[in-house]
Amino acid sequence: MNKKILFSILLILTPFFWWNIIHPSNIPSELIKLPQYLSNQKNNFFSEERITIVEDARWYSINQDIGRVFFNKLYIIPTELFYGLQAISPHNFFSSAGTYHSTPDGIPAIPFLLLPFSVLGLYQLIKNKKYLPLAIFVLTSLIPFLTGQPTLYYLIPTYLLYLYFSYYQLKLLSNRQLLNFLLLDLVYNLYIIGRIITL
Amino acid sequence: MKSQKIIHLIIIAAISFFFRFYQLSSYPVHLSMDEAAITYNAYSIATTGKDEWNEFMPLAFKSAGDYKPPVNIYLTAPITTIFGINEFSSRFVSAFLGSLTPIILYLLLTLLNFSALPSLLTSLWLAILPWHIHFSRASFEAITALFFLFTGLYFFFKWIKNSKPLNLLFFIISFSLSVWSYHAERLFIPLISLYLLIANFKTVKNHLSKLSLKWILSLTATFLIFSVPFIKLTFFTPAIMTRAAATSILRESSLGNSLHSSYSSLSQQIFDNNTYLIFKHWFNKYLSYFDFRFLFWKGMQFTPPQSPGIGILMLFDIILFPIALYQLIHKKNKQRLSLFIALFLLGPFPASLTMNNQHPLRALTWIPAFAFLFVYAFEFLSKKFKKHIFLPVIFIIYTISTIYSVNIYASLFPHYYSEYWQYGYKEAAQYLCQNKDSYDKIIVSDTFGSDGPLNTGLPYLYVLMACDYPPTLFQQKQQTGKIQYRRADWPHDQFENNMLIVASPWDILDDNIPEESIVKKIYFKNGKEAFILIETNEK
């Protein structure tokens, strides 16, 4: 199967994609808030609330000097970076529902059926020493770090990379295996659509 | 083994023992209910051969609202006769087996043909891993189970290597003891055994065909000795099913509320059926264990959700992780790769089937996967860099990591969470044991904590321990003389004659207690009131 067609089919068969096609205003209306989010994150990065939490830890440390070394303003940076890493975890894409109506109620952005292929695709990429997609994937964690928004609207690059990982493995399947899988994926999507209509 | 390696291993063992035994009685800050239950039942077994419910040598101990696995209790029994019933005795078995686990890990890794230095460093990694240290320092059965899991893996691969049936016997015993030690292993061990069997099918078949009849009978008998009582407990008593039901994800309100007892329409039966809902809930939980923040930054629940904490792994491990993955993939050793995948995917599986999100205790079965992963990183680093550069860097990083972890564990953890370790019950129990003859009646509240009046404890366990209450007496009536356990009811209790009340602040929220009636106040480590000891006037 043509590579572009395969990737496009995978893209279409994700709830995040077709949900936002049906609701075309969702993504622009959220992305338009980017300057506001950036400014909020910048202004609140070292907010009093965050500093108080760190200072609390310093205050109750075993020794004030040790507390000062570990728990100071800088501690907020890795804390926020890990929120970013948390946002790009597979959990956020394959199992939990998107926030701000980015996916249908209770439905993950990418079908769980694609997760094993994503993992195997990642394996193939490392095996073939293709690190660029991996590097970009890790760098996408900076988006929630900079915007303070772990929503899928801002993690579209991560979402596309997860699809790319799946695609990288799926393209290795025979046409027959691929067709069977895509049929299964289609049935899953129809099931999800059925859920949305009936519930 | 060269003498230098033995010395290194002894140093790592010393580090492991130090982190698990230093101030063992003081950290965690208080005996939990489960620890108290294990200790008193162990003491009861050691002195009378019966548990607190007067049952002779039980295989599941009914206590603290649960059925406890027997291994830790039987191992603790002789310890209580040596050291008495106290924190040290309670925690000795876990601390001891937890200290030995890095040594077993070293033996396992060298058996799997990893070189000595990476194996030693992985052993050191486990010796200082806060995730393993914390649970080793309290009487957690999961640590015992993990020790036997590592031991079982060691003997299995030894058997695969040299086909000596004695190794197979030890493998069966170790894995069986692991299953008998903790709930998570009841699921993990059969699954990993199945993997080991499939992955080594040819060798296993070959080795088994060479066994003599004597060995076949001995091995079968050993297997049956452990498995038949377990099957009996599972299907003919509530011991195992009760625990499974009590911690099952089905009990979670977020799932339970969405499940249907009957379907109102065909479309609901198709599109909102319970199987789908349960699967979705479980999958969500399972994937939550692969969250980077939980793994490296904030997984140990030593501090409140927003406060600084530590992950189940150390922060430095985030660097080892990609290096190890790269090495594992490029080594082209399919057997090792498949072993890692099995351990990595199965590790959090038992925990994901239970209540509570990201449960580090139940996920301890994941440790072998990480140990097996990081040995690759250490192998790579030890080959890539010169020892005199690489070792000091590792030493400095681990020292900083350890100071950070110790600070959180010894200072912040007690401050924020002393009440979750039932802090205060011991002091209250000690007071009333010393003064019990001065009162006609004593009431101890089972309400505790600052969160609300609904948290309940089992204060009788602390009284049994503090008063060194003879098990023979308790076994008869499950009572502790004049000491009773219920919430204080000041409007009525105040008219009782010569009574001591150990009340939680929630019990006397709206009551005006005369200052002169308060004989003692006990505080949590964060300064909030834990218990108020009040005496009624003598009339």
Can you offer a commentary on this structure?
The complex is a heterodimer of chains A (199) and B (539). Chain A is an all-alpha fold. Chain A is built from 13 helices and no strands. Chain A has helices at 3-12, 15-22, 26-31, 34-44, 48-59, 64-70, 76-87, 90-94, 115-127, 132-139, 142-147, 156-170, 175-198. The two termini of chain A are 36 Å apart. Chain B has helices at residues 3-21, 33-48, 70-83, 87-111, 116-127, 130-137, 141-162, 165-181, 183-199, 201-209, 213-236, 239-247, 253-256, 266-271, 274-288, 292-296, 317-330, 334-346, 349-352, 367-384, 387-417, 425-435, 459-466, 471-477, 490-493; strands spanning 61-63, 66-68, 441-444, 483-485, 499-503, 518-523, 529-535. In chain B, the strands form two sheets. Chain B has a five-stranded mixed β-sheet with strand order 4-3-5-7-6, with helices on one face. A two-stranded antiparallel sheet of chain B has the order 1-2. In chain B, a hairpin with a 5-residue loop joins strand 6 and strand 7. The longest helix of chain B is centred in the last third of the chain and has 31 residues, at 387-417. The A-B interface holds A 53-54, 56-57, 60-63, 66-67, 70-71, 75, 78-79, 82-83, 85-86, 88-91, 94-96, 106, 112, 115, 123, 126-127, 191, 194-195, 198-199 and B 267-268, 270-272, 280, 283-284, 286-288, 290-294, 296-298, 303, 306-308, 325-326, 329-330, 403-404, 406-408, 410-412, 415-416.
